[in-house]
Fold these 2 entries.
Entry 1:
Amino acid sequence: MAIAPARTVPVQPSPQPRTRKYGADGVSRRTMVGRIVVGVLVAILFLVPYLVMLVGSLKTRSEILAVPPRYFPQDGLQVGNYLTMWSTPETPLTYNLISTVVIAVFATLLVLLVATPAAYYTARFNFPGRMAFLFLVIVTQMLQPAVLTAGLFRQMLVLDLNDTWVAMILINAAFNLSFALWIMHSFFAGIPKEVDEAAQLDGASRLAVLFRINLPLVWPGIVTAIIFTFVASWNEFAASLVIMSTAENQPLSVALTKFIGQYATSWQYVFGVSIVAIVPVIVLFALIEKRLIGGLTAGSVK
Amino acid sequence: MSTFQQPPTTRIRTERGQNRESLVAALPWIGPVLILIFGVVLFPAAYMIYNSTRRISQAGTDVEGVGFANFSRVLADPNLPRILLNTLVWVVVVVTVTVILSLALANFLNKPFPGRTLVRMAVVVPWAASVVMTTTVFYYGLDRDYGIMNTFLVDIGLLDSPYGFTKNVATALGAAIVVGIFVSIPFTTYTLLAGLQAVPGDILEAAKMDGAGKVRTYFLVVLPQLRSALAVAVLINVINVFNNLPILRIMTGSLPGYSADTLMTYIFKVLQFDRRLDLASALSVINFAIVIVIVAAYVKIVKPMRED
């Protein structure tokens, strides 16, 4: 499920229900307090694993392996773990972080470069094979690298690209392309084409119409596509596991699994690195929280 | 009214007709997408199917064509029935429980209360976070000796003493299922929330005027409106859970043999540890065929192309 790749939901969000609910059928104070209590419990439930991570990353090695375990560190908070973890012997974490960043950034740039013109064109113009093209996009959107890893591994082996950033950039880009294209397509489709026609009457070229007129209007869609591609590439595991064989080249998701099953795992480092890897993507997702409900629904921009 | 129920309007058709372009004119715009999809998705798929009919040495040399021998070999594998059963249980339990819990959570998060946005953001966290890292915390937490979740279960009286959940097949699979549900709920909840917000307010008011109770309104008015969101949630989850590797790989990774494997974790064992690319390809082709069936169901039931 990784990031369960968000898909297009063919429903239209209606006006915010807020006014409706607070209105005539306003609820009693007791019900509202009850909702807040349930809300807090729900939030805690979903945050607990990450709080365990955070607290664990601040324990000493002997404390995190203590039997029986203690909930909170009693030897003081080991903030220094966040510095010492980079030189742990299990895996070269600095290189793993660099690999993760490089692969995610370039895969996202490639997707943006390739998907934006196609999304614009398919939203604006009709051409023979347009439906076939969109069908292809829908179908590949449902596939994940794990399904084709056996084929991808062999292909990259023959192309002499195994164990390279290029292989993982291409794979992450190709498998996230469709979703990004589909999101941007629905945003472009939401802009009245009269806007384009007016600009073209003024003598603007198609590229100028795309860049000057349309991009500023669809940027929420582009941001959503960027964040989804970036986070999915950042967290990719299955294909990297097989294709990236050198310790230095592996992304964090693969590198961290090497700690598991050891005699005395340095859990404090596993969790420190996890926090460093998770916080940025949580921030990115928080930025598009509203879009997760409204914006993923195809054609929601009217 | 949700527009998706309306047939495509002729207005759109004629507008598009005015802008009819040739395929040659379209190629510079869509060509790069086609190159990536053909080169990195369709080609490896075809290559994998081809490889499944070859004998490939452990060093990676293509030795000879063997027809369907790889398929008969993996299908005759005595471990396969158990693996398929595990896969079925894994997918059915995770998806069913996920959808039921997400339905309840989406209903709750659709009600107004102070701090709702913060709660919604907390629910998003497992969606954004790496599944490998989330699973790792559960694996550590359930350790018999130093696992903090084990201690918690003992402290609240659910367990008499710490239990080594990842040390035997049934409990390791159970723990994996719990993690699978945990990481699947965010996407599912948000999908259903989008569906709930699309339920028109006037329908709810009409139901109220007609004297329908809350329960009746929910089952007779709201749920039918959620049908398409539910179809998306179920099918996307089926495909994601079916293809999930990290959760089971980590949770059941310390167990010997194949008794806790699903098709996906088994493929990766054959690929990585046995280094049998030909057999792994044959298994992947079987896996791929199942995925295609689910995708076909998605295209048929959800009709994602409808807006066009």
Entry 2:
Amino acid sequence: MKVIFEKPKSLEDVTFHYCPGCTHGIIHRLIAEVIDELEIQEKTIGVAPVGCAVLAYDYFDVDMHEAAHGRAPAVATGIKRVHPKNVVFAYQGDGDLASIGMAEVVHAAARGEKITIIFVNNAIYGMTGGQMAPTTLVGQVTNTSPTGRDVEHSGYPIRVSEMLGSLVGPGNSMKRVSVHDPKHIGQAKKAIKEAFINQIEGKGFSLVEVLSTCPTNWGKTPVEALKWLEEKMLPYYPLGDFSPKEGV
Amino acid sequence: MNKVLMKGNEALAEAAVRAGCRYFFGYPITPQTELPQYLSKRMPEIGGVFLQAESEIAAINMVYGASGAGARVMTSSSSPGISLKAEGISYIAGAELPCVIVNMMRGGPGLGTIQPAQGDYFQATKGGGHGDYKLLVLAPASVQEAVDLTIQAFDLADKYRNPVMILGDGILGQMMEPVEFKLTENNELPVKEWATTGKKGRKKNIINSLYLQAEKLEQHVNRLADKFGEMEAKEQKAETYLTDDAEILLAAYGTTSRVCRKAVDMAREEGIKAGLFRPISLWPFPEYALQQVLGRVKGILTVEMSLGQMIEDVRLAVNGKVPTDFYGRVGGMVPTSRDVLEKIVAFREVL
């Protein structure tokens, strides 16, 4: 019998701990498919974050390093500088990357560090139970913005891809994708693959911001959550390529 | 080999290179900045990497990554910067990775001053970061000793898979002394099968300090404790000076021990039988060596550039058998030998 669909080699054969309807599982799978297709499983080193994906080291079947909250780009830098011929990626959420770890990601990008970061933006802190993130939308209710995010009090959500794209030179790549439907999942995979290739070709720093859902902490069903992502997040976080085209 | 005249910070940097360290991640802070400056020139000459990080936090996390990847790696800083590194040091110890961390102490708390101090003894020996872990802490008293201990530090870090701290101060970092770089016979670096190098030909490696099940974390921490116990048994190191007949024993480390050595000579000239006990390893504290020199000792005067931190370990080691006293200067002030002598005389009168 011909196998036409199977679990990627680079994913462990274990059950994810993610909530029903959470899109981390899809994003994990896309990364593993890309690693398989590029035939880099044996030379890839992943860096796991603190947040919902803290156990990513149990899910990817590649060498893994668990970082402290926000520090994944610095840890990945250390690894990549020791093994420049290996492929190093970090997987980070929005609290991890855009709040506590903002300095680390900005400077890894500014150095043109040849690493790939998969940045999962679901507009909320998931693991700690639904607090406001730097990416929480204006008016969005969370456990620490109970009347909705108020710009007078907390300012505006941070658009990471645009920000990073504005401060670095050519060779670095910043793209925003979404996983709310099959068509966009296909586009997300393409962007992730290009981000790995950008590193393999030695061009520079690559980040793929993946808009993602958190049905549990958004208080929605999985289907409602996908719809909310499409209707509420896409207008504020437009999809596209924010890579710098010229030197700054 | 001929001796060369070098500044402490630069000699220590060169010692790291001689020990096979090829990766350095750091951030400028007085009074240790000559160390990264030296390596920014030296590392590229030998195919190594020097990287100035965006912060001490990033630097220690780069060390964490590089160490996990199997490298001999070092970072250096001074007191406020070490506070920032504390989180990363805890992770490195928790994940059982080797590295060398240099702290050229300055006055604190807070921004304090850039002048020398020894106020980070507690931070270095009792924790600093969160959780149950220990650093091997070595305290050189000369530029030559800084060189020798740095070379040893890399081997100890690899042996125990644990961070080792070189604890100096602004004087040690800034002063120039003649040094010799002794060639070690064994230049082979240990094979690190646990490192993240890509899983070719083996199962994947994971560098981690997370154990969500309480039973598993307890097992892990108890295993670390066994390792720390082995260090306590094997790695205590101290030097003694004129202790055989000493009635007044000075206890001091690093720069302060040099002041105290002179004070011992001055006391002897006045007919006072003084001696010096100098811990070289601060953790583990050399309690066995201290207990061995207590023979005729009537009192121990601990001298530090702090409000009194190491004195707690001195007291624990003598366990009430000998009276203790303390003399310290803080804020970047360095005690003089004459000050110490006066304190010896006063202490002797009350014994």
